[in-house]
């Protein structure tokens, strides 16, 4: 849980989040038990206002530059508060892993 805690800490400092959900999805992939390799991030912030999707991703990747070296995958779902409300306060479900036997 060390990497997950690092990610939460960095994002909490870098963004004024009205909602932040970080889910370790590693257990759904073909990796050793207890791995911290695959994460799903849902982040809602006014910091994303007037930013294109690629700019939002760049903002997160820049903030997490050190942590990205430690993980394999990070699914990003980044919204403004208005976009989040329009989505019914829900991020899309993650697809099943296609890279292994799980």
From TrEMBL:
InterPro entries: BolA, BolA-like_sf, BolA/IbaG_stress_morph_reg. It holds the Pfam family BolA. SUPFAM superfamilies: BolA-like. Belongs to the BolA/IbaG family. This is BolA protein family transcriptional regulator. The lineage of its organism: Bacteria, Pseudomonadati, Pseudomonadota, Gammaproteobacteria, Oceanospirillales.
